[in-house]
Amino acid sequence: MPIYLDNAATSFPKPEQVYTAVLQTMQQVGASPGRGGYGTALQASRQLLAVREAVAGLVNCADSARVIFTHNATVALNLAVMGTLQPGDHVITTSMEHNSLLRPLFLLEKQGIVLTIVQADAEGLVDPARIRAALRPATRLLAVAHVSNVTGGIQDIAAIAAIAREAGALLLLDAAQSVGSQELDMQRIGVDLLAAPGHKGLLGPQGTGFLAVGPGVQLRPVMAGGTGSSSDQDHQPDGFPEGFEPGTHNLPGIAGLGAGIAFVQATGLERIRQHEQELAEYARICLQQQPGCHLYGPLQPDRRSGVVAFTVDGFDAATVAFLLDREYGIAVRAGLQCAPRAHRTIGSYPGGTVRISPGWYNTRDHIDLLCDALISITRKGIQ
Questions:
Q1: What pLDDT was estimated at residue 381?
Q2: Which domains does the chain show, CATH number per domain?
Q3: According to the model, what pLDDT value does residue 316 have?
Q4: Model's pTM, two decimal places?
Q5: 297: exposed, middle or buried (C-beta count within 10 Å: 0-12, 13-18, 19+)?
Q6: Could you give the CA distance from residue 101 to residue 77 in angstroms, rounded to a whole number?
């Protein structure tokens, strides 16, 4: 069986209860929530509500009705920025962001918002003082990834949230790389909008995600269609959550997401975090001993998550990843990881890096096999 080390893209494998939840929902429920008053439709609605409440509890969203299910974090981020910003609003983001956040902001920039991109340092970390210095009277939103998908760097979200509160701006947190392994408490930290996928750290299926919206945040629907309620109205309602979830829900996927959340909570966030970070640190130690191997990201261990990025002298990242897969059955991610500005920031553009991201089901043996394979690849290359 292949060794899978790309959990930052999609976690794999999933807990057995996730597969079971998806299959049982398809086989035994079948109906769509909010689309009928018969037994299985009501069961579907109860199932949807239960997962909505589980998400709210996980991130401490004050009102579970303000948890909006989406197809992924990208859709959640689009809804967050397009549903809150108007022409003339000023937005601050960073050079370490994923295209799922930057591209919607660049699109809105063409429509009249004002965008400031704060430069991170060579380790990929953002000095909150730079964000404070970028504030303007029209600053409406601070939009930041909690953890970088390129380096695993953990930003100082508490400090950034304090700056947002002082400025009267909203804080949008891209939690794609932190949900399921890092503690997230919207109310304690001061997060107004939190976007996350279901298929990464929460161990759910692809095609799931959510946007959690804090109290008092005014959000406009950006899509329109059937909502199962308010059917007499010509225009899209803006009530939570129905007004923001037009069309049929991916109920089997959401059921799987609920099972993934249950597994994460039963296992323990701290236990998962420690496991992933210990494997990442072990990998860094092994890689540092290899001649010609260069590591990227924060030097401080407490500012790193379970992501390791590296390059090997004399090999482009894509070639290393190809050989690891073809010759040794090891799956890693190579290239720019949908974050070209982040790679410019850390000095790995245009070739990008090789990225490994251990998950709950990885072991030290997997890291040893990876490092042995890299030694073999570089020796063959030298010969």
A1: 66
A2: 3-11+269-382 (3.90.1150.10), 16-267 (3.40.640.10)
A3: 95
A4: 0.96
A5: buried
A6: 6
User: Which neighbouring-strand residues pair with 38?
Assistant: none
pLDDT reported for residue 153: 98
- Per-residue tokens: 328: 């040794």
d(CA 81, CA 307): 27
pLDDT > 90 fraction of the chain, expressed in percent and rounded: 91
* Maximal CA-CA distance, the chain: 74
Q: Give the closest residue to 11 by CA, choosing from 364, 360, 379.
A: 360
Q: What is the pLDDT of residue 260?
A: 98
Structure tokens at 50: 């239960």
Q: State the catalytic residues.
A: 338
Given a cut of 70, the residues of the chain with pLDDT beneath it are 381-383
